[in-house]
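Backbone description:
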Amino acid sequence: MGTILGAALLASTAAAGAHPHVFAEAKLDVEVDSGQTVKTLKHLWRFDELFSSTVLMEFDKNADLVLDAAELDAAALTIHASLAEYNYFQMVTVDGEDVAMKPPAKLIASYENNQLVMQFETHPKEALPLTGKVSIGVYDPTFYTAIEFTDDDKMAVVGLQQRCSRAVIRPDADTAIAQNQKRLTDAFFTDPAGTNLGKIFATRLELTCA
């Protein structure tokens, strides 16, 4: 694992605290099949130029200031391994109950306009019908990486029937803290990943079918 990239994406929690150091503009496309079952989650993350330059320095082995196909593959493999224990920053629930997701087979990296772009797909381990409230969030539980959806259209659904509704929920941080004050101990602010409470701040897509 590259030391710089590993530190940035694994987010040594003692150093990270509750402040993001890496920023990524994100897009999520949810594919629903004809039986109204969630089929695929397609993720795209476009990282900030500072972090992207760090990746360039770490993986540009021939020092030509360009990431060729092999170097991009190496970066993608490192990020794939780094994110495994964090479920690739995904949170999927049905009526509040966690849904297990298959890890992505691979991550695809590209470098565009001085920014690292990562794309990958995941699938539910078991059939995920659109019954009850299906919630899909994307967040870094360590708070080291801020995954940002710049507008609600960046969380899209393909194949959703008219009887179903779609909503993008953006929790207000102050409200979330106030509502969870008793659960937010000092441990959360020193090691947020260890408390699993970072999800209360996550932007999420909610799908509800009548």
Notes: The chain has one domain: 3-209. The longest strand covers residues 22-32. The mean pLDDT is 83.
